């Protein structure tokens, strides 16, 4: 929910600028995940040589299902990546997976948000992206080969679907 996003940004003392510490990188990663539906491991492993900001996509060579995937980037996703551009020559995010998880949990706990996991961004992203993309484009973007897998993450309510009928 937007309230939780706002609380996390406030707790990280992040105001949409270049991050000055690792916690601010975590909030950028969180927002980036909502834009792209990427998994935490995919985000942590992302390197600049696989990011094409001008063409608005990135390449994931190692995904959960073992296949290469091109991820299209929204304008907001490009903005978020641009904030990280000068921090490291190789890695987009400078945290390793263990410190990433620890920093995420500390940030979440500081906000007293009990039932939020980083992977929840994938559900949120799919629901948001489903408002903009055709189902096959959505499945391709997030790396699902069958629609049953996609349905696990797609959480639109009946009233949200109804608004698209008119």
TrEMBL record:
<keyword id="KW-0229">DNA integration</keyword>
<dbReference type="GO" id="GO:0015074">
    <property type="term" value="P:DNA integration"/>
</dbReference>
<dbReference type="Pfam" id="PF00589">
    <property type="entry name" value="Phage_integrase"/>
</dbReference>
<dbReference type="GO" id="GO:0003677">
    <property type="term" value="F:DNA binding"/>
</dbReference>
<feature type="domain" description="Tyr recombinase">
    <location>
        <begin position="1"/>
        <end position="166"/>
    </location>
</feature>
<dbReference type="GO" id="GO:0006310">
    <property type="term" value="P:DNA recombination"/>
</dbReference>
<dbReference type="InterPro" id="IPR011010">
    <property type="entry name" value="DNA_brk_join_enz"/>
</dbReference>
<dbReference type="InterPro" id="IPR050090">
    <property type="entry name" value="Tyrosine_recombinase_XerCD"/>
</dbReference>
<dbReference type="InterPro" id="IPR002104">
    <property type="entry name" value="Integrase_catalytic"/>
</dbReference>
<dbReference type="InterPro" id="IPR013762">
    <property type="entry name" value="Integrase-like_cat_sf"/>
</dbReference>
<keyword id="KW-0233">DNA recombination</keyword>
<protein>
    <submittedName>
        <fullName>Site-specific integrase</fullName>
    </submittedName>
</protein>
């Amino acid at each position: 929910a937007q309230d939780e996003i706002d609380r996390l940004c406030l707790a990280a003392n992040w105001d949409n600028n270049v991050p000055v510490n690792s916690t601010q990188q975590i909030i950028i990663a969180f927002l980036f995940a909502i834009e792209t539906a990427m998994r935490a491991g995919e985000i942590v492993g992302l390197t600049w040589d696989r990011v094409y900001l001008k063409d608005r996509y990135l390449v994931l060579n190692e995904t959960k299902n073992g296949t290469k995937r091109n991820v299209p980037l929204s304008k907001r996703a490009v903005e978020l990546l641009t904030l990280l551009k000068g921090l490291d020559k190789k890695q987009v995010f400078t945290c390793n997976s263990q410190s990433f998880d620890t920093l995420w949990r500390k940030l979440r706990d500081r906000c007293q948000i009990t039932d939020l996991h980083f992977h929840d961004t994938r559900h949120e992203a799919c629901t948001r992206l489903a408002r903009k993309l055709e189902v096959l484009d959505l499945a391709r973007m997030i790396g699902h080969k069958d629609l049953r897998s996609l349905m696990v993450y797609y959480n639109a309510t009946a009233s949200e679907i109804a608004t698209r009928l008119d």
